[in-house]
Amino acid sequence: MLDFTTTAHGWDVPGGPYYTDVTEFIEAATNQLAPGELLMMDNFTLAESMSAIEIMDPRLDSGLAQSLDEKPTASFDPYFPLLPEEVCWILDRAFATEGCALSQTVHTLLYVHELPTLDPLAWYRRQPKALPIDRPGNLVTSVLNASILGLLKSCDLVWREFAQKHVYENEDVMTEKSEISLCEGTSVARVVDSLESAEEWLVSQGGLPWSEELLLRVQLRKVMLRIFASRPRADSELNRQFLSMSRELVQRIKDRKQPSLPPLGSQARAAFDPAICRKFISHVPLPVIRLFDQERTWDALEAMFQGLQDLSPLEKTEDLRVWKTTLNLASRNPPSFKRCSYVRSRTTSSFTSTNALIFNTYPVSWLVREILSQVGGIPKGVIESLYSGADRVTLFHWHAFENPAAEVRRSFLATAVSN
């Protein structure tokens, strides 16, 4: 139990009679220091000083660029019913949030963090008895809910592709999830069912403003999800159909009317928080970015779909010369979304999978034989005959010489390094 003693200053200090107050001693010593002077102990280096002094917070300068006149004036309310045009604008900006670090893009859409709220039972429980006619609840609980599910599941599938390490982390892609769910435990089939239910509801609402525009965006989200879920080569024919559909849908969206920018006081503007990444745990400081405008977003999506379509010649042929020509041509093109990180990773996945099969069909030895045959002009059976024919004794003699020679070389290098 602590013993407290009252000092001359009138406040208690722990320690009992053995406690010595050195406050005045420290104050007298520090008064001798000049402004900006630092008193350091022995062996105090720059590393210790940098560890002791925190220079601001790296998260303060990260996020999305936003001017003061773009800041919404309303507080976000996930239970607030929305207009059809507002939902259309949110879906458009959700497409624009794909392509950079999740915490700066997808996670800025606040509905991503409110998926349980968008459940019909939970959402309608918080509503008045009668919703406005121009703000039907299914716009939020069906159309917006399914689209957010499709967005997150698409991010999950793309994240799994990047997890194969075919592109460089923190250079080509940022895979940090910031401990936010991407619907990893939700099946693709369930998300597709939700999107198709939203399609059916929109088709049934013939007199609803913006119903056709919303339908095109829901269909595009569903097709994109199926593209990301397809397997290289195994689903190549089906994937080509999806890619053709996606490019057609983007063109139809561009040809129709576009939603206008909602006012600052609307819930659609409040649904995005560009600074939310400052609340997340980040292992790498993120630079400030600015999202594409909508026209450039559609152009970027079209370019990505075109880049994926360019993989078709590689998946349909087994001629190495076609592979070499196609890849050389792609490598000489200027940087564009046709060669974005996902397209490059998907290209590598088309060639090899985790079990080291070429196009998930042939072993690596097949690739060696094809290179010798098509590039070197060496018949395919020559190498095998050297091991199985009369000349294999020569190969055995060569191996008997090669192994001791390699051992002598390693021994010589080890001696040279030690000296």
Strand-residue proportion? under 5%
Mean pLDDT: 79
Say how many strands there are.
Answer: 2
Distance between the termini: 65 Å
Structure annotation, total helices: 16
| Derived structural class | mainly alpha
Task: Give the neighbour order of strands across the main sheet.
Answer: 1-2
How many strands, what sense, and barrel or not for the largest sheet? 2 strands, antiparallel
* Poorly predicted regions: 1-11, 415-419
Q: What does the radius of gyration come to?
A: 32 Å
Outline, from the CA principal axes?
flat
- How is the quaternary structure best described? single chain
Q: SSE string, helix = H, strand = E?
A: EEHHHHHHHHHHHHHHHH
Tell me roughly what share of residues is in helical segments: 40-55%
Structure description:
With 419 residues, the protein is mainly alpha-helical. Helices cover 50% and strands 1% of the residues. The chain is built from 16 helices and two strands. The chain has helices spanning 23-30, 46-52, 84-96, 120-125, 138-162, 188-204, 211-229, 236-255, 267-270, 294-309, 312-316, 320-332, 341-351, 364-374, 381-388, 392-418, and strands at 4-6, 12-14. Strands 1-2 form a two-stranded antiparallel sheet. Strand 1 and strand 2 form a beta hairpin. The longest helix has 27 residues, at 392-418. The protein is flat and about 95 Å long. Mean pLDDT is 79; it is low at 1-11 and 415-419. One of its GO terms (cellular component) is NatC complex.
Comma- or semicolon-separated keywords:
single chain, 419 residues, mainly alpha, disordered N terminus, disordered C terminus, NAA35-like_N, Naa35_N, NAA35-like N-terminal domain-containing protein
